[in-house]
Design a protein that fits this description.
The protein has two domains: 95 residues, no CATH class; 208 residues, Alpha-Beta Complex (Transposase Inhibitor Protein From Tn5, Chain A, domain 1). The termini are close together. The chain contains 14 helices and twelve strands. 44% of the residues lie in helices and 24% in strands. The longest helix is centred in the N-terminal third of the chain and has 20 residues. By secondary structure, it is an alpha+beta fold.
Length: 362
């Protein structure tokens, strides 16, 4: 328990909760993403001591708020069914030179460069319920694999996940070994140029090897009424050792994707189905940028970014939409009162504030 929470009386706690609700409203309402928009909602002028004083009080409780959020998620998740952890990162483009951990990044799709930040996020999924538990800015002085391994420890130790999903960038020996140390299952997309060792000491890229497999050797499956063709093999990789590979494509002439796993018992169809859950984190990135003020947030202070990311995680979790939160936000974002009404009536957000009040009073 932090010193500040021990010293708070009921009046201070109520102010803190009200300020937190105003910040949630600011995330929903603001189009510029600047702290000045939130300040106006609080009837403070931008840059005044009153606004920053309240922000500092909430910032002092950010670590405790994270723990409260974690405990609430644990109670929120189902007791039955596989629990899945998801890891991925996304770019936040920013112009200027004053944003925390800002640097030049390469866009592999357009083969161009842009200025901005990277955000690494982790999610927990179980039985249709999902929560983004962590979002962190990572820069050139951070090793993304080390940060990912720290989050893997949290996923496994705190949230007791059974399976961890990630894309090809995180499919590195350091990450795979960390997961296998805990005797957990990983499912990852694999790069097409990964090197496979054949029995006669020949080495060939995975993509070239699979080209020799005729389409008739693939098995057709259906997932959510959509057809896929899959081919499974156990291969010896130069980097990863011997692992199962599932090749999946949407049609005979479509480019395949390659999935790698250490699971011995799951069927190939089930592995493809599980990996499709990774798309949930892409929905979070899209929603956070378009509807939760992530892309337009203009603060230059890293501590305030940490708080903002935490509030975005909580707000997105509280909406719990299967596809996107766009319909909810569009209905309320143009009116401050509707935003506050949504926050006041949201049961999940109220659970966070109830736990915060309880901890501050003990």
């Amino acid at each position: 328990m932090t010193d500040i929470s021990k010293s708070k009386n009921k009046k201070d706690i109520d102010k803190l909760v009200d300020f937190g609700k105003q910040l949630f409203s600011g995330i929903l309402r603001s189009r510029t993403g600047s702290l000045s928009e939130m300040a106006k909602l609080l009837r403070f002028q931008p840059g005044t001591k009153g606004f920053h004083r309240m922000l500092e009080k909430l910032s002092d409780l950010s670590d405790e708020l994270r723990q409260i959020y974690y405990e609430t998620i644990k109670k929120f998740l189902s007791e039955k069914g596989l629990r899945i952890g998801i890891i991925d990162d996304s770019s936040i483009e920013k112009s200027g030179k004053n944003f925390p951990k800002q640097q030049k990044h390469h866009n592999h799709t357009t083969n161009s460069f842009y200025s901005g930040m990277k955000m690494l996020s982790t999610q927990v999924y179980q039985a249709g319920k999902i929560a983004t538990i962590s979002s962190k800015l990572v820069g050139k002085n951070d090793n993304k694999l080390d940060v990912a391994n720290e989050d893997i420890n949290i996923l496994i130790n705190d949230f007791v996940v059974d399976i961890i999903l990630f894309d090809s960038w995180y499919c590195k020996s350091k990450v795979l070994e960390k997961i296998q140390e805990h005797n957990k299952i990983f499912i990852s997309r694999l790069r097409a140029n990964s090197i496979v060792k054949l029995g006669d000491d020949t080495k060939v890229s995975l993509n070239e090897l699979i080209k020799s497999v005729h389409h008739k050797q693939y098995m057709q499956i259906k997932i959510s009424k959509k057809s896929y063709w899959i081919f499974e093999s156990t291969l010896d990789f130069k980097t990863y050792g011997t692992l199962r590979v599932i090749v999946s494509k949407e049609g005979q002439h479509k480019e395949p994707i390659f999935l790698i796993t250490n699971s011995k018992n799951f069927s190939a169809r089930f592995i493809v189905k599980l990996y499709s859950r990774r798309f949930n984190i892409e929905v979070f990135f899209k929603d956070a940028k378009q509807f939760l003020n992530l892309k337009t947030f203009q603060c230059r202070h890293e501590l305030k970014w940490k708080l903002h990311l935490q509030l975005v995680n909580i707000l997105h979790w509280a909406m719990q939409k299967k596809n996107s939160i766009s319909k909810i936000v569009r209905k309320i974002r143009d009116n401050t009162q509707r935003c506050l009404l949504f926050i006041n009536e949201n049961q999940l957000i109220n659970k966070i504030f109830d736990e915060l009040k309880r901890r501050c009073q003990t």
